[in-house]
């Protein structure tokens, strides 16, 4: 099995850049699969989230340089935290000025569909070439199930990240597959002084992912198939009662945790179980700190346990790449997105990230990154099995607003911590959701 080191990541990035310097004057005929001729003098600016995995940034930027050298189109890539990208994208849409391409989160493209360039032809090209889009990619990338106004980069999937030795010391040979066994594991870890910890602050990725998993695992849902608020149910009560038991096993401070906090707590040895992308493993595996490097072999991953509903109820943090209508060079922007999603660029980028981003196109399931290390494999199918955050209703302005307002996360936090009874937390969540889901 091939294990990627930091040095190998940089070699991959350098190789991509060097390879791109050939035949620069022959773009019109030599750029593979060119579909959109960039406008004369085109320049682009892209805004995306800050990397959690260094290999992601290294190779994304190397691929960008390769595109620029082959096309003459200068591309500036800026990055912000997940929490900051969404409001900046909304401001850009409203004022009609800002980055040409923004890689947002969840259903950002559903918030201002009239402000975005139609990408249907590009999406159809990529889907036809690479085995089709997963249903989850279609749900987030398309408006009214007809027009694509975003190209999903992929999704940062959430798995259980745990210390193998601590799990075994807590009496489990393998990671439990159901919620009953999972609670017992957390209780035993707490008794051993190696507790779990899950974000309950307004964490765009980690808190939203595990709180929605919990709600759905017990059969709860914010809205029904007709987009009517349906959170007040016995199933939601059961989920919140379970959350209260689970919270009792957590390390202190999780009510204020944002996305970086559980990473830090895990690597500091404060917790031995959390939900996260593959970034914790990556950080330990590539660290020059001998203590962190020694932790890497003990880190493992498992898919989220299945609750009483009897099937996976996972949510991944999807990244829609949007081109705004104020962009002066839409052909260049579309060509950049096409280039970055092609196999020659996409697969090395995934490999350098050790699978931090799960693919939206089915063909990339065969990327060797998913089997080069069995610890990567649990992340491979997350976009295939995930539910959308608008479940069981439609994605749109209401679901995006509810997600941005952290209604489900806040409900779980209030009930789990005892700040409110499950019923009180549910009623508050329902009242907040009704403001967005008025029919």
From TrEMBL:
- Where is it mostly found? periplasm
Q: Does the keyword Signal apply?
A: yes
Keyword Repeat attributed: no
What GO terms fall under cellular component here? periplasmic space
Location comes to: Periplasm
Q: Which InterPro entries match?
A: Bact_solute-bd_prot1, SBP, TAT_signal
The UniProt keywords, alphabetically, are: Signal, Transport
Name the protein family: Belongs to the bacterial solute-binding protein 1 family.
Which PANTHER family does the entry link to? ABC TRANSPORTER PERIPLASMIC-BINDING PROTEIN YCJN-RELATED (PTHR43649:SF34), ARABINOSE-BINDING PROTEIN-RELATED (PTHR43649)
What protein name applies here?
Answer: Extracellular solute-binding protein
> In the record, what lineage is assigned to the organism producing the protein?
Bacteria, Pseudomonadati, Pseudomonadota, Betaproteobacteria, Burkholderiales
């Amino acid at each position: 099995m091939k294990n990627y080191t930091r040095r190998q990541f940089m070699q991959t990035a350098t190789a991509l850049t060097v390879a791109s310097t050939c035949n620069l004057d022959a773009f019109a005929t030599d750029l593979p699969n060119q579909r959109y001729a960039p406008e004369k003098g085109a320049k682009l600016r892209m805004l995306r989230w800050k990397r959690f995995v260094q290999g992601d940034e290294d190779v994304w930027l190397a691929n960008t340089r390769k595109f620029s050298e082959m096309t003459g189109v200068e591309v500036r890539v800026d990055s912000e935290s997940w929490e900051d990208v969404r409001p900046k994208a909304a401001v850009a849409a409203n004022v009609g000025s800002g980055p040409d391409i923004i890689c947002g989160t969840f259903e950002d493209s559903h918030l201002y569909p009239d402000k975005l360039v139609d990408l249907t032809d590009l999406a159809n090209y990529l889907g036809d070439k690479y085995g089709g889009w997963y249903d989850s990619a279609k749900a987030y990338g398309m408006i009214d199930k007809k027009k694509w106004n975003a190209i999903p980069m992929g999704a940062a999937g959430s798995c259980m990240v745990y210390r193998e030795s601590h799990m075994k010391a807590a009496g489990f040979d393998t990671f439990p597959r159901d919620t009953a066994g999972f609670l017992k594991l957390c209780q035993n870890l707490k008794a051993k002084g190696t507790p779990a910890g899950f974000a309950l602050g307004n964490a765009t990725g980690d808190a939203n992912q595990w709180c929605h998993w919990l709600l759905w695992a017990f059969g709860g849902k914010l809205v029904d198939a007709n987009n009517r608020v349906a959170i007040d149910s016995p199933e939601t009560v059961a989920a919140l009662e379970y959350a209260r038991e689970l919270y009792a096993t957590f390390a202190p401070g999780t009510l204020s945790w944002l996305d970086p906090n559980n990473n830090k707590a895990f690597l500091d040895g404060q917790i031995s179980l959390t939900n996260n992308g593959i970034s914790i493993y990556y950080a330990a595996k590539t660290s020059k700190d001998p203590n962190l490097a020694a932790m890497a072999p003990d880190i493992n991953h498992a898919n989220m346990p299945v609750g009483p509903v009897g099937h996976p109820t996972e949510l991944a943090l999807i990244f829609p790449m949007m081109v705004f209508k104020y962009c002066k060079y839409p052909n260049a922007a579309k060509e950049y997105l096409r280039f970055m999603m092609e196999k020659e660029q996409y697969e090395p980028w995934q490999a350098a990230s050790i699978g931090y981003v799960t693919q939206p196109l089915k063909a990339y399931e065969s990327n060797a990154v998913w089997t080069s290390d069995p610890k990567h494999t649990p992340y491979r199918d997350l976009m295939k099995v995930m539910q959308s955050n608008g479940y069981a209703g439609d994605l749109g302005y209401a679901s995006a607003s509810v997600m941005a307002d952290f209604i489900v996360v806040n409900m779980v936090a209030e009930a789990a911590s005892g700040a409110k009874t499950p019923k009180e937390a549910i009623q508050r969540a329902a009242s907040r959701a009704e403001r967005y889901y008025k029919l």
